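Action item from last meeting closed. Structure (119 res):
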């Protein structure tokens, strides 16, 4: 759920909360406070989100909603990936073109040298 959904629930439980100062860290702390600590540890069984977000496999989150708190991070990483892919592709194209032109020049030089040796 998005921040507004959390805010609505938290306001029902705690009373008036300022929406403009509400961060995801504060939301997590307030939600944790709603549950009993009688049974030890983390009552909700929450886990920290790492680089791959909440995906269970090693695939980055390509599809994010506008309410996802990681959307700017996700799009930044995707932009960096695309830029790197473009640079690597251009580099390989340049290397291939340069290698072909050098091999043609080398073949021409070799054939001229062979003609000189035969004469």
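Sequence:
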């Amino acid at each position: 759920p998005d921040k507004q959904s959390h805010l609505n629930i938290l306001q029902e439980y705690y009373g008036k909360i300022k929406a403009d100062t509400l961060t995801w860290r504060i939301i997590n702390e307030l939600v944790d406070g709603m549950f009993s600590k009688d049974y030890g540890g983390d009552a909700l069984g929450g886990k920290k989100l790492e680089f791959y977000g909440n995906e269970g496999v090693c695939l980055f989150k390509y599809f994010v909603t506008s309410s996802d708190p990681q959307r700017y991070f996700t799009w930044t990483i995707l932009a960096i990936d695309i830029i790197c892919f473009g640079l690597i592709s251009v580099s390989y194209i340049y290397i291939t073109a340069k290698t072909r032109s050098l091999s043609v020049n080398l073949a021409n030089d070799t054939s001229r040298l062979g003609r000189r040796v035969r004469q």
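Note appended to the action item: The chain has three helices and no strands.
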